[in-house]
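Structure tokens please, single chain.
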Amino acid sequence: MKKPLLLTLLAALLAFGLLAGCGESDSDSGEETTAAACKPGQLPTESEGVLTVATDKPAYPPYFEDDEPANGEGFESAVAYAIADRLGYPAAKVKWTIEPFNSSYAPGPKDFDFDVNQISITPVRAKAVDFSTPYYTANQAVVALKDSDAAQATSLADLQDAQIGVQVGTTSLSAVEEEIDPSSQPQVFNSSNDVVTALKNETIDAVVVDLPTALYITAAQVPSATVAGQFPAPGGDRWGALLAKDSPLTACVSEAIDELRASGQLDRLTQRWMSQAAGAPLLR
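Here you go.
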């Protein structure tokens, strides 16, 4: 009686093992299918047959021109259309939607396929959303009124007594705290508009933003300000396209960006729209 029972148990264990093995094989196959599913124009997008791209409003140069993302002018508009083209979606099949910066990386479902809005890739954000491979790496920059002491800074140490403003939720805040280490807490504002207004009103001495934004602020928003200098963000400030967590499009968008980089097209877009960023003095 014991021997048949033992054989029965062994048979059951073998059957379970085979079933478990099949389960693992199905899972692996699913991952491979997802990675290989970047069929041009046939992706599981938010709206069938259309690629929905998000950004904030207002949308500023040099990332977008005339506050109109759909015109293809500006660095991130051009990059988004280049990604879309690689994915098989011509300009006529790209739809833009508004997504505030601070809500873009919040957990939960998204009503867009990907978002381009100078969104830095960070470990904390990556817990709630997906990021593509980076399409740009930005330095931070100090913008100060021309007649202020901060404008004369030649090192980060020269800025320690300045009252600095930053936008909430940005990597600029950690860059100020870690690299400048000011004697007083930086003032944190809800939006980029609020940061600019504070600088105009001279309620702060300087602002820290990414370098391309700094160039736009001094050229168009606060002509009485200057870019005092630039410095690398801690760990590097890499921007990626943002997608919903576990989006089936993440690998496809990353693949498209990698192809744009390999072909030289991404570099050409960067040179066209971001070339002024190289001229600001480096602060150490």
